[in-house]
Amino acid sequence: MTYPPIELKSVSKQFGALQALKEVSLNVNKGEMVGLIGHNGAGKSTLFKLMLGLIPASSGSIRVHGADTSGPGFRQARRRIGYLPESFVTYDNLSGLEVLQLFADLKKVPRSACAGTLELVGLQHAAGRRVGTYSKGMRQRLGFAQALLGEPDLLFLDEPTNGLDPEGIADFYATLRKVKARGATIVITSHILAEIQQRVDRLFIMKSGQLAAQGTLDELRAGMSLPLLVEAAMADQEAAGAGLQTLQGLPGVKASAEGGKLTVSCERERKMAVLSALSATALDIVIHEPTLEELFLGYGGAHVRAH
Ligand SMILES: Nc1ncnc2c1ncn2[C@@H]1O[C@H](COP(=O)(O)OP(=O)(O)OP(=O)(O)O)[C@@H](O)[C@H]1O
């Protein structure tokens, strides 16, 4: 029998008087890449630690590949998991290859896998260099490499693009796509919502220890029905004024004009009415969907701060 990689039922976690997680239920399907987002202290890292079996839940059940994280069968399931913690700490006096070999020994993965894994994260040229001389981005790549060792079929990546430059971020997601293509399931957290919103299959929004919403970006948009933003470039100020007048007659539409530019905020179901009102006179029209940041705030999240 095959089990979904992750099944959580009514999971709560108490740290003394503090309730870090409250009745969280969620499933992640095989081969999915999902994003876990939430404000600082929302409970993302705690959820990771519970799913990795590093700390016990106060109540509820957590199954990973069908094995209860508090049961004896979990050791086996744990071998198929890769984890990149939020702060990856390593040994400065060893080379990148030596660090990876150490992790390979711990994970009971043959050392022969290390060179290829370093190549996968673009560190092959620095394999023999002391980690103490690595940049922040290179350390993060090394952390990613240890998570990828042994081709795990479930990956937990906590803030994996921390410290990476734009090229590093693009490389990281290119590698993730390869990992996903071989059927792995991936759970990723990020504070940079613009970065993950187009890259994951589904999103979980955490708020104060609870799951505030879940779904694809489109489902989250439909659930919140935030207004769309339409920007239209008109030939000149006069054309913009005429366009503004037409739009002001439409219900559920707010518009303003500045020079030859019209800015319109409208309910989703008014989009076609707005477009047809402008289509004859506009030179160009751009429609902006609500961003994940706006949805996140709409679902009750606080502002997401980058670390
Ligand atoms: N070992 C612990 N003992 C006591 N409280 C803890 C412990 N671990 C986490 N907490 C608390 O649980 C809550 C959730 O923390 P958690 O680290 O899971 O949040 P997070 O969403 O990962 O935050 P961030 O985005 O800042 O990493 C916070 O209030 C935190 O202070």
UniProtKB/TrEMBL annotation:
The family database entries (Pfam families) matched by this protein are listed as:
ABC_tran
Give yes or no: UniProt keyword Transferase. no
Query: Where in the sequence is the signal peptide annotated?
Result: none
Please list the GO terms describing molecular function: ATP binding; ATP hydrolysis activity
Boundaries of each ABC transporter domain copy? 6-233
Family indicated by similarity? Belongs to the ABC transporter superfamily.
The entry's protein name is: Cu-processing system ATP-binding protein
